Task: inverse folding
């Protein structure tokens, strides 16, 4: 069994799982400050699937400094919600839409702390694609191998302070970074889809 075929099986399984999900229409989210579309970029390196994340800058309106996926608000000019996710990914990390092989949409989710509605999409990129952070929105671009995302040794908790009240949330703690909240829930959804059918 080749490592590439392992990656291809992951992609085939994801494509099949996402095929039945219908993303929201753009006019349902356009112009809404509490709505966004994001891209979950995936690539293969050294026989393992890797997932791309960003760390949001301290200059954005919400979720400053938090780990997220590239994405942002849906504009009225976006023909589809997917177009919004690809446009935002291009603006934030320089990922051109033509370099993304879109697999499909994840179910729409809401952030727990701010109530933002998010439409996530998954797409495959080449491992050597050049990405660059737009400093006004993104402080860092990094990736995490699937093996680490699955590894229970990297599971823990994140303490979130809101209005003087501290709450604990499950998290993936890897490389000095904390993946939690909606980003974690999308990640866990991805892992569940990949695990389904594996023997």
Result:
């Amino acid at each position: 069994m080749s490592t590439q075929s392992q990656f291809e099986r992951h992609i085939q399984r994801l494509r099949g799982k996402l095929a039945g999900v219908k993303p929201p229409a753009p006019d349902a989210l356009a112009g809404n400050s509490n709505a966004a579309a994001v891209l979950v970029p995936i690539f293969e390196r050294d026989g393992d699937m890797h997932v791309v994340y960003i760390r949001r800058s301290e200059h954005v309106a919400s979720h400053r400094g938090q780990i997220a996926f590239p994405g942002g608000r849906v504009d009225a000019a976006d023909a589809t919600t997917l177009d919004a996710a690809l446009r935002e990914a291009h603006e934030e990390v320089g990922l051109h839409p033509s370099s993304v092989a879109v697999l499909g949409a994840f179910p729409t989710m809401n952030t727990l702390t701010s109530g933002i509605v998010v439409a996530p999409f998954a797409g495959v990129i080449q491992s050597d694609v050049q990405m660059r952070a737009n400093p006004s929105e993104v402080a860092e671009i990094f990736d995490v191998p699937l093996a680490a995302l699955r590894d229970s040794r990297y599971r823990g908790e994140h303490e979130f302070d809101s209005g003087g009240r501290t709450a604990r949330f499950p998290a993936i703690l890897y490389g000095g970074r904390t993946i939690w909240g909606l980003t974690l829930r999308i990640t866990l959804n991805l892992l569940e889809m990949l695990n389904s059918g594996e023997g």
Summary: The helical segments are 3-18, 26-29, 81-93, 146-150, 181-195. The chain has a mean pLDDT of 89.
